[in-house]
Specification:
Length: about 325
């Protein structure tokens, strides 16, 4: 089989590897489409020491939709030909490999395969291209859920990438009345507009003025601020938390889903007196898979619109370079 092997910064090889052999309880899946994650881009551009669990000289990729092509004699929960979503944490039997399950390889062996644990069936109403976005959408869905959204509330998502869009859609799915997406890339914000979201380009104009105009006003300890119940940071920019501390209303929540190692000094007394919350969101849970599949089955949102580029596996290097430029690309996928 063909497999993309990560060699280090700016270096990926396409190699021939043996198709994995199965034991009696295993399933062999053949990838249909795989999506390039922001972590794949970060490791490709900056090397394996960026904190992501992608290792040199190994297979990588984890956002994929696949089809069952072989199974062991003890497997009864799955049939040959079924489309499945491999749950990265459990798909390889090694939780340390959640980011390197072989999404950029032609085949993946799923040991001791279990339904709704290591593999989930994909509904026929979800297209192949859309289904390879299930994994990043579960990350965004989790971030939205961690913000404790309530019907009728308002929210702002910072970062118009796949995770940010997923969080914004999930907020609407959970009943949030008004959601605004902020970014510096007009290219990406234009796609968010087509999905029906209010947007703010933070490279021009005033965020607070734009937010007030769309969301209204509320009170903070220091006066009037935009009426935002939930802030979600999918950028990792240091300025976003500063903005929350300055412009967050009483009882507002801040959810961080971005990869951000910056050490911060926080005014805990301000947080206490304003009853504000800072919440972390990492990964996802099975309930998020269920919600994302319900979102996709509903066809309410044209999620495929965020896919801007498609490459064959033998152009994986060019695909990674393309995905690295947010001014020209949104979601980049690999077709097998």
């Amino acid at each position: 089989m063909k497999a993309a092997i990560y060699r280090g910064q700016h270096h990926v090889d396409l190699c021939e590897l043996p198709v994995p052999e199965l034991n009696d309880d295993d399933v062999l899946i053949q990838n249909i489409y795989s999506s390039i994650c922001g972590t794949d881009v970060a490791v490709y551009q900056h090397g394996s020491a960026t904190g992501h669990r992608i290792f040199e000289n190994g297979e990588f990729g984890h956002e994929t939709v696949s089809r069952i092509v072989a199974k062991g004699k003890n497997v009864t929960e799955f049939e040959i030909g079924e489309r499945v979503y491999p749950y990265p944490l459990y798909a390889t039997g090694d939780t340390r490999r959640a980011g390197t399950i072989g999404g950029f390889s032609e085949y993946i062996r799923v040991p001791d395969a279990k339904l709704n644990h290591s593999l989930y069936r994909v509904d026929d109403r979800i297209s192949d291209r859309e289904a390879c976005l299930i994994e990043p959408f579960t990350v965004g869905c989790r971030a939205a859920r961690r913000g404790h959204p309530m019907p009728g509330e308002t929210a702002v998502v910072f970062g118009c990438g796949t995770i940010g869009i997923a969080a914004a859609i999930a907020l609407q799915y959970f009943g949030v009345e008004k959601v605004m997406i902020c970014d510096l890339s007009e290219f990406r914000l234009a796609i968010a507009r087509k999905l029906g979201f209010a947007v703010c380009n933070m490279s021009c104009g005033s965020f607070e003025d734009t937010a007030r105009q769309y969301l209204g006003e509320a009170h903070s300890l220091h006066g009037s601020v935009p009426d935002i119940d939930c802030f979600i940071d999918a950028t990792g920019s240091e300025q976003i938390m500063d903005l929350f501390m300055r412009a967050g209303k009483i009882e507002s929540r801040f959810v961080n889903v971005a990869v951000d190692k910056t050490l911060r000094n926080l005014d805990l007394l301000h947080l206490t007196y304003s009853s504000k919350s800072i919440i972390g969101s990492g990964g996802y849970m099975p309930e998020d898979v269920t919600d994302v599949m319900n979102i996709m089955k509903s066809r309410k949102w044209k999620i495929e619109n965020i896919i801007t580029h498609e490459f064959p596996l033998d152009q994986i290097g060019e695909a990674l370079e393309t995905a690295s430029d947010p001014s020209k690309a949104f979601n980049v996928i690999i077709k097998f």
